[in-house]
Amino acid sequence: EIYGAGIAASPTASVMTFVNGIDPEMEQAIGAKFPLVSGHLMSRADPHGVVMGEKMRKMLGVELGEKVVVTVQDYTGGFAGEAFTLIGTLETGSDQLDSAMVLIDKDSASRLMSLDKRISRFVLKTVSPRFIPMVVKDLRQKLSGTDLKVATWEELIPMMAQLMHFQDGISLVVLLIVLVVVTVGI
């Protein structure tokens, strides 16, 4: 995955954005889910497609099939931009993500950011969540002394992790209330 900050612009508006260069086939192979609201994800057939949050689409005032210019800071510190066609929108449930994220093809992101064969992030999926601490510890030991950083998704997106823990807590409280009501009823 390639990740960078940038700007998404339409003829009438512009929005600061996080640009994610992804390989949709690889993302789906590791089980990534994209909550599409309309359109579709980019593919090899349409490498100049862009997918963005539904809230961002509304802020930019664009519809599917219209052009969006994505500008990013490249690896050397310069700026590069390219026109993409809006091919899909998604809703993650997070206002922050839905109003500040665009997905483009990994090769397009690499070209825009002058990264050549470099990547920003590499995502690893374990067979079970209980293996995560062991894998992270092992990778951190093996990569110590390099410029590489190993982080869990909770460390990368702490706000999302807090939201998920909060939702788990609320679900537990609701379950306990239902259990108490059923027990009193019996």
What does this structure look like?
- The protein has 186 residues and is of the alpha+beta class.
- 37% of the residues lie in helices and 27% in strands.
- The chain is built from seven helices and seven strands.
- β5 and β6 form a beta hairpin.
- The model has no long low-confidence stretch (mean pLDDT 83).
Q: Average pLDDT value?
A: 83
Strand element count:
7
Write the H/E string, N to C. Answer: EEHEEHEEHEHHHH
Radius of gyration over C-alpha positions, nearest whole angstrom: 20 Å
Strand order, largest beta sheet: 1-2-7-4-6-5
The best one-word shape is: globular
Termini distance?
54 Å
Beta-strand content bin: 25-35%
Main sheet: strands, sense, barrel = 6 strands, mixed, barrel
Helix content: 25-40%
Structural class: alpha+beta
Residue stretches low in confidence (pLDDT < 50, at least 5 long) are: none
So how many helices?
7
Please give a handful of descriptors for the protein shown.
alpha+beta; 7 strands; 186 residues; six-stranded mixed beta barrel
Topology:
Blueprint: E1 2-9, E2 14-22, H1 24-29, E3 36-39, E4 49-53, H2 54-60, E5 67-73, E6 79-90, H3 95-99, E7 101-105, H4 106-112, H5 132-143, H6 153-156, H7 158-185
Parallel strand pairs: 2-7, 4-6
Antiparallel strand pairs: 1-2, 1-5, 3-6, 4-7, 5-6
